[in-house]
Amino acid sequence: MSIHTGFIFPTYTSLVTETLWSSKPKEASPVQEKPIIQTIQPRINVDQDVKKFFTYRDGVAERAATECAEEFLDMESEGPVLGSFLLTQINHWDTDKERLILLTPKILLVVKYDFIALKRLSYKKLPLEDIEAIIIGDLVYPNGSLIP
């Protein structure tokens, strides 16, 4: 098992023709109708054995991703799952949030999943065209905590 850290995003090209120095407008060339797929290569290498992490015990993360895909995704309209990711955020109150992310050709599915009780709590579907940027980095604990 490996931790996936690469993302694939569609980028759409559009054509704008404008004539500045000529009295005759130029013929517009056809717009590419198929999306261009831009692959961002992983920048984070994890040298840990993922089987040591609580979430990855006995294939729990894989089962959670499969359950969420079956329940929340319409494979015909949203496409197949391209990858699944587990994201963690730790804030200054020393609370952590884990989200299971499923990536399809059209949407990013963000699922709040309880890995102890093994149940889905909530989810959000984000169209890929609404996403402006994704920041990839190492998990870093805050310098200090507001809890004694």
Automatic annotation (TrEMBL):
Question: From what superkingdom does this record's organism come?
Answer: Eukaryota
Report the residue ranges that make up the HSac2 domain in this protein. 55-148
Cross-referenced PROSITE patterns: HSAC2
How is this protein annotated for GO cellular component?
Answer: cytoplasm
Name the InterPro entries for this protein: hSac2, Inositol_phosphatase, TPRG1-like
Task: Kindly indicate where the leader peptide sits in this chain.
Answer: none
Q: Which Pfam families match?
A: hSac2 (PF12456)
Q: Which family does it belong to?
A: Belongs to the TPRG1 family.
Which protein is depicted? HSac2 domain-containing protein
Its taxonomic placement starts with: Eukaryota, Metazoa, Ecdysozoa, Arthropoda, Hexapoda
